[in-house]
Amino acid sequence: MANTQFSTKDRILGAAEELFAQHGFSGTSLRQVTSRADVNIAAVNYHFGSKENLVTEVFRRRMDDMSAQRLALLKQAQEQSPGELEPILAAFVEPALALAQDRNGGGAFIRVIARAYAEKNDGLRKFLSERYGHVLRDFARAIATCVPELTKEQLYWRLDFLAGALTYAMADFGLIKRPSGVSDTSHRSKAAQELIRFAAAGFKS
Predict the structure, then answer these.
(1) Phi and psi (nearest 5°) for 70?
(2) What would you report as the CA-atom Rg of the chain, rounded to the nearest whole angstrom?
(3) CA-to-CA separations, 29 to 44, 60, 110, 138, in angstroms, rounded
(4) 65 CB contacts (<8 Å, ≥6 apart)?
(5) Are 35 and 16 in contact (CB under 8 A)?
(6) Which of 6, 16, 131, 202 has the smallest set of CB atoms within 10 Å of its CB?
(7) Where does this protein bind DNA (predicted)?
(8) Whole-angstrom Cα distance, residue 140 to residue 152?
(9) CA 51 – CA 71 distance, rounded (Å)
(10) In three state form, how does the secondary structure of 79-114 look?
(11) pLDDT (mean) for 103-117
């Protein structure tokens, strides 16, 4: 029974993620989600209770794991390379690019993130700030030890710019396209290397 419940919940989340990516949050109805997931409205209400909860669960499904990976890599960077900026930036960048490369809906989720930037959804922004804000604060403190000359305002501006550049790189619609014969993994690795170098120079400038 538990497996059936899990698969139903996962199917609803997958359908919602695809539809949010295509139509946005306000432009997607629960009826569209139930139709895509091939479930009835009672199943959505049972698992999520409301559309708002469904939206936040779509984010939690991806971002809880990514945040845990980031923090684990940050701890490792601080223990193995104390005072070095680039390993800290790698801990921030690499899990996000790995998520973008996830063939199980990673591309759709990147478009969902873009929707979150584009749409004014105060409830979602509050949820993201409350649930994941501590991750950014941990990285800010770690980066600050490497560039103590920056004011807190400068530090947060530059971290904001890094997050924006990372989102752009995750979406993979920039000037640099993956060359034929180069694997997705190699292309993402190259993107990570270049972004980390660029960000390090920005924080140190």
Answers:
(1) -60, -45
(2) 19
(3) 12, 20, 20, 37
(4) none
(5) no
(6) 6
(7) 29-48
(8) 9
(9) 30
(10) HHCCCCHHHHHHHHHHHHHHHHHCCCCHHHHHHHHH
(11) 83
Q: Do 155 and 163 touch, CB atoms closer than 8 A?
A: no
Residue 96 to residues 5, 26, 82, 165, 171, Cα–Cα distance (Å):
29, 26, 22, 12, 11
Spatial separation of the C-alpha atoms in residues 185 and 98, rounded to whole Å: 8
Q: Is 38 left (phi over 0), alpha (psi -120 to 50) or beta?
A: left
Token duo for residue 48: 């999520």
- pTM of the entire predicted model: 0.87
Residues 14-43 have pLDDT tens digits of 999 999 999 999 999 999 999 999 999 999
Q: CB under 8 Å to 140, separation ≥6 — which residues?
A: 155, 156, 159
**Residue that is written with structure tokens 């400038």 in the block:** 205
Q: Which two tokens stand for residue 110?
A: 């990147």
Calculate the alpha carbon distances from 173 to 97, 111, 144, 177 in Å. 13, 11, 31, 8
Q: Do the Cβ atoms of 36 and 23 come closer than 8 Å? A: no
H helices of the chain, in order, are 2-23, 30-37, 41-47, 51-80, 85-101, 106-118, 122-146, 152-171, 184-204
Side chain identity, residue 136? L
